[in-house]
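Entry 14. Structure prediction run on the chain below.
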Amino acid sequence: MRLTVFIALRHLLARKRQSVVSLLGIVIGVAFFLAISSLMQGSQKDFIERLVDNSPHITISDEYRGVKKQPVEDMYPGALVELRNVKPLTETRGIRGYRQIVEELKRQPGVRASPVLSGQAILSFAGKDVNIVLNGMVPEDIRDITTIEDHMEQGSVDDIIADRNGIAVGKALMDKMSLGMGDNITLASSTGQVRVFKIVAQFQTGRSDYDETQAFVDIKRVQALTDRSNRANTIIIKLDKPERARGFAERLEGRIGYKAVSWQEASEDITSTLVIRNIIMYSVVSAVLIVAAFGIYNIISTVVMEKHRDIAILKSMGFRAGDIKEIFLIQGALLGFAGLVAGLPLGCGLMFALMQVRFKPPGLTEEISMPLDWSAPQFFIAGAFAFFAALFASYLPARKAAQVLPVEILRGGM
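Output returned:
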């Protein structure tokens, strides 16, 4: 054992009660830091997973981010050109060459893509009419790209694959229209086309507005209903790594021209709120460890005041100012290390206790538990913050001890 470590231990053991109190402050601080941080990060991850998993990571639409330039502007660049009463050409909307785009995307590793044709339709049943959003997809892709199958209460995507005239609707819509499984419903589009579909699946996502207005069918049936053969107005993309969505969308938009919106761009207000939430959370939980660090500062400052004569003797024996500073920094490091070693298991116990808490908010039929994040970064952040807070708290007293002049101390004690 190095001599400086031995001296640091002797100083701490000489004031056992104060050392234990300071150590408990670090232990409790680490435990609460870890428990609160994991709870907040767990709830954030759970929220983002719900947000991300229930929606595409990237959505390509049949729109352009900017207004297309007119030929006259290309003919006279830099000139003052005024255009009046410009009317876009009437055309059948859709993404040109969507099949080639989807096939190219599917060839890339970690990328899943599917074309979608969405349109408004009037659902008629038993003398009632209601406006719904008809999502036409390749039935085999519904399970892979969307999470709608996870919310199926009756039927499945396989029923849509087996019956191409099958339709999946929300439970709220079925209750509103007094529909039942196996009923035939009539859908009419704005083009005047009318088709009959059979209800083969029912889903309930828990979002009443979604369950009441959305329906899923084979894309070819929607193309026929809306008179838009071989068209898709949206391509939805799922990535194995959702955090790559923003950069991937920017590169994709630059290549194909159509507007590509990532989930981060579509939810910028939510992501910015989460950043502010994290800043507030870490500020609050860090205050616990900062208060505990003051305890370490207090005990080491007291030791320095009481050991002036010992410090002077050590210096007269050949100890340099750096050696003296090292002794008191070691004291802070020992307290910080012991605090995180005991605090991390205590924090795990608090986290496990929080996981056992179950409650049922008003309006829900099932109990829910608190989501916690058990990932390694949470433990590393809590331990590192505690250790460096203790080390920083011991720095000022250590520097003061290193500045002690042995001649004045020894002369004053003679």
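The chain has two domains: 3-52+270-413, 64-76+92-258.
Filed with the rest of this week's runs.
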